[in-house]
Amino acid sequence: MTNCKYLATFELKCPYNKSNCLGDFVVQKRSNNDPNATYMWFIGCSRWWKKEAGKGKHFFQRLKEDIDPILLGKLFNRESINLANEADSCSVVLSTKSYSTKCGFLHQYTNGGMEKGKIIKKGCNVSASNLSKGIHIHPPPPPGRILQEVTYKLKVMIETAHEDLIDISPRKLISSNLIKATFGTDYLLQVHASLNDIDKLRRLISKVQKEHNPYGQGILGLTYDIWKGKKEYKDYVQQAGVFTDGQIIVICMSEKQAKAWVSLDYFEIDLTFKRVQGDINEFEVNCYNECYKIALTYARVFTNITNSTSYERMFSLLFNWIYQLTGSNPKIFHIDNTGWKCILGDLDRAQAKGLGLALNRLYPNLTWEEHLTHIFKSCRIHYNRNIKNNKYPNNVKQLMYEYPNANTIERVEEIIQELKNSQEIGYYFILFFGEDTWYASPDNTNVVESCHANENQDGKSLSLEVAILRAKKYNERNFVTCQTQDQYVKRGQSSNKVESFTIQKGNKSRKVTKIHVIDDLEKEKQMISLKEKKLELEEKELKLEKKKLELEKERLELLKSKQELGFTE
After folding, report:
1. Whole-model pTM?
2. DSSP letter string over 62-108?
3. Which pLDDT belongs to residue 503?
4. Where do the domains of the chain lie?
5. CA distance 286 to 311
6. What angle, rounded to 10 degrees, do the helices at 394-402 and 380-389 form?
7. Structural element, H or E, at residue 500
8. How would you list the strands of the sheet with 40-45, edge to edge?
9. SS3 305
């Protein structure tokens, strides 16, 4: 480790005076004037005492415990070191095409200094003429040209090695089982000696990728593949392009996703930053399906700009594609009394404003702020986190924490007025949600966050085309799961029973709405129970009729007896 540290430091320079310092590296120790303190060894500059304003600091680096400071100091001072255990010769052999001038190992020279060994180029006694004369004094060089048959097999193997050809790499290819299946050997260098150079394999992979993706793997390559009619993107990538302000938008949504989306009561929206390399991010629409017990993705958009204007454009395009795929515009509950009741998102102001502007364009009878007050609900976790991270006074933070849990409208108005008086809050909304919608919808965006985590398992920092293809397979896999459940599980129209009750906690009470989902089996049981009760009632009615007839018969007989005895009424 000491030799490695010396080699690593040997290439460095003292940063003082823009690396123009004339000092050398030295190993010294220091203490904090405490006689019981342990000395600390460090690497410093021999001209540390020379300091001028504006020229920075001299080199300083602490040594770790696994480095011998005495040996390192001798190496820096070029002192003679006993190398009895070291070999006198070096066995490094490099190709004549190599540009390296050092071997990479420490060697001691006659002056006592320790440096990397110098590579000595040796000639050959064989003269290069029409007829070679002499005897070679070096081993034959390895073959540098790959056989044509091997090249062809390698190209076929690369094309079939990975479902996403544009994501293949030499390491993935070498670690696959295709080498054994194609060539019958475990390692490529056993096929041909020239394949010992991994750069040759890297160039071959790049060549194959260039043939299949001549315009790369970004937005230009995606547009070219869509124009060529690549089947992988058909019926999924609805729109891909670049707008005049430089915004890239790729709309990904199938007809099945669009029809399922418009049937939701609520859903969650969020932006993820890890899946696509570069400046393109991924926007998703997700919701947890209670019937299938799975989180589904209903639409995704790849974009590089995330201001309010770009979000307005994004949502407007999504609404337009819903119309084209389903034949009707999305329904909003506070406008149409049916359709979407709640949209959950984090506290991204640009995202919320863009959504409101898109809704205003769809339904212009309300302003974008009014639309948000009826449909947008922020994540409670993001809300609390932002309060905690902001430098508000403690009394203001307490009011903000209390605001979502206020029991009465009067208390809500009091909190808003107190926040106004504090002059800490300059922008706020009063939400107009139905009680059932408020309590039936989640108060966080955990579903969309879990979808991000699941998709990241398939890879991060991907190229745009690979990210789209893997997202498509992820969506299809989830929807096929739902179809499989439909095949083996009898499902029907479920009815929701809404039950309201009050929870008392200390001096506070909160009204809670609980929704019971009644499936077909439960409904059938209820129908049987109702029929049984109906039969019981019919039996009782028959008994009552029979009793009435018997009483009437007795009354007539009694009246006849009275007449025979001469009694009159």
Report:
1. 0.62
2. EPPTTS-HHHHHHHHHT-----TTS-SS------TT----EEEEEEE
3. 44
4. 3-77, 148-212, 230-375+433-473
5. 17
6. 170
7. strand 495-505
8. 25-30, 40-45, 60-62
9. coil
